[in-house]
Design goal:
five-stranded parallel β-sheet; FAD/NAD(P)-binding domain; FAD/NAD-bd_sf; single chain; alpha/beta; Monoamine oxidase; seven-stranded mixed β-sheet; Flavin_MAO; 8 helices
C-alpha cells in the first residue's frame, strides 16, 4: 500500500512541503486544525468596505535582496508585489507629553522590504492551488502519532465535531509551532526529553504579540512628509509602520510594547482607545477617527500560542530543527519557520524548513 506522507499544519511551510511532494509525484495529505488555510498568515478586509483593500494581521513583508526562496516562489506563482512605503521622516516618541522627534534617515540605512499585492493570503491561495483536490483537510486535529512495528505511522485525528479517525502514513512532517507539537500531540514511543526540551525552547514567532491596524481613506501622513514609521517609548504601540495596501484605502499598523497579560487586562476596547489617542498625538487630528480598526492578539490564539509564549522575548530566539533518535529518524521531520536555521521567524524561514523536511522524509 502506497501510504501518503502526512503533513500537520496548513500554513506556508506545510503547504509548500505538500507542493514539493506533489511536484515529485509523492502522495501526501495535509491536516489542519483551523477552519482555514494559512496559519499565522491572516489577511482581512473591512466588513462592507472591500474597496479599502486587504490588510495583514500576520506576516507583512519580505526582503528580496537576501531572501531568495520567497522571492523565487512569488515570481513563479505570478503574484504582484510593491515596495513598502518608507519615504519621509521617521518619528521618535520618548514620552506622551513630549513632542515627537522628527528624523530623516539616510536612504542606504534602510533595506527595502516588499509586500504582496492583496496581502499575504494570495500567496497561501496560490500554493494551495498547486495541490490536487482533497489534499488538505481542515478542522482536523492530530492527537497522537504511533510508530508501528512495520515502520508505518498511525495518526489519531479528531474532527471539530468530535469524530475520531485513524490514518496511516509513510512519514509525518510537523509544520506547526514546536511548542504546539509538545502540548497537542502524544508520541508512541515517547520523544526523548532532550527533543521535547529543544521544542519547548523555541518561542513561537509572533505568539506573544498583537497587531493593531487603524484604517483611513487616504495616507494623510505622507502629505506631512512622514513615512508612517514610528519608534515609541510611550506606547501603547512601540513600533508603527505604514500599512497602506497597493490600491484602496490607507492604514497605520503597530506592535504593542505591552505584554500579553497587560493587553488582556485592558481589553480590546480600551486598547483601541489608547492606540487611536497615540496616533492622534503623533500624526494629528486626521488620525483621530479611523474608518475601521482591526486587532489580532496572537497570544489568545489557541492554534498558535501556549502559556510560555506570553513571556516577552528579550532576544532573537535560536531556531533550528531538533535532532531525532533513530527510532523516529526519517519518519518525522520538523517544518515551520521556528525550525529553520536560516531566517527563522520569517516567510523565508518557513520555506527553508519545508525544503529540508521534504528532503529528510524522502531521503530513503
Amino acid at each position: 500500500m502506497n501510504d501518503p506522507i502526512m503533513i500537520v499544519g496548513a500554513g506556508l511551510s506545510g503547504l509548500h512541503a505538500a507542493s514539493l511532494l506533489t511536484s515529485r509525484g509523492i502522495p501526501c495529505q495535509v491536516l489542519e486544525s483551523r477552519d482555514r488555510l494559512g496559519g499565522r498568515i491572516l489577511s482581512e478586509t473591512v466588513k462592507g468596505r472591500a474597496d479599502l483593500g486587504t490588510f495583514d494581521l500576520g506576516p507583512t513583508w519580505f526582503w528580496p535582496q537576501h531572501e531568495p526562496l520567497i522571492s523565487r516562489l512569488v515570481r513563479e506563482l505570478g503574484l504582484g508585489t510593491f515596495d513598502q512605503h518608507a519615504q519621509g521622516a521617521v518619528l521618535l516618541e520618548r514620552g506622551q507629553h513630549q513632542p515627537a522627534e522628527r528624523h530623516s534617515l539616510p536612504k542606504e540605512s534602510m533595506q527595502q522590504s516588499v509586500r504582496l499585492a492583496g496581502g499575504v493570503a494570495p500567496l497561501i491561495e496560490a500554493v494551495a492551488a498547486t495541490l490536487p483536490p482533497g489534499t488538505v483537510e481542515l478542522s482536523t486535529t492530530v492527537k497522537e502519532i504511533v510508530k508501528n512495528e512495520d515502520g508505518t505511522l498511525l495518526l489519531k485525528t479528531e474532527r471539530a465535531d468530535g469524530k475520531v479517525k485513524h490514518r496511516q502514513g509513510k512519514a509525518v512532517i510537523l509544520a506547526l509551532p514546536p511548542r504546539m507539537i509538545v502540548s497537542a500531540i502524544t508520541f508512541r514511543p515517547d520523544l526523548p526529553e532532550k527533543v521535547i526540551k529543544s521544542l519547548q525552547d523555541k518561542p513561537t514567532w509572533m505568539a506573544g504579540q498583537a497587531k493593531a491596524l487603524a484604517i483611513y481613506e487616504t495616507p494623510f501622513w505622507r502629505e506631512q512628509g512622514l513615512s508612517g514609521q514610528v519608534m515609541s517609548w510611550a506606547g501603547p504601540l512601540q513600533e508603527i509602520h505604514d500599512a497602506s495596501p497597493d490600491t484602496g484605502g490607507a492604514a497605520l499598523f503597530g506592535f504593542f510594547g505591552r505584554s500579553a497579560a497587560e493587553r488582556q487586562e485592558l481589553g480590546p476596547t480600551r486598547l483601541r482607545q489608547e492606540v487611536v489617542a497615540q496616533l492622534n498625538r503623533l500624526f494629528g487630528p486626521g488620525a483621530k477617527e479611523p474608518i475601521a480598526f482591526l486587532y489580532k492578539d496572537w497570544s489568545r490564539d489557541s492554534h498558535t500560542a501556549v502559556d510560555a509564549d506570553a513571556v516577552p522575548l528579550t532576544a532573537f530566539p535560536i531556531y533550528g530543527p531538533p535532532t531525532l533518535p533513530d527510532v523516529w529518524n526519517k519518519k518525522i521531520a520538523f517544518a515551520g519557520t521556528e525550525t529553520s536555521v536560516q531566517h527563522g521567524g520569517h516567510l523565508e524561514g518557513a520555506l527553508h524548513a519545508a525544503v529540508r523536511a521534504v528532503s529528510e522524509v524522502t531521503a530513503s
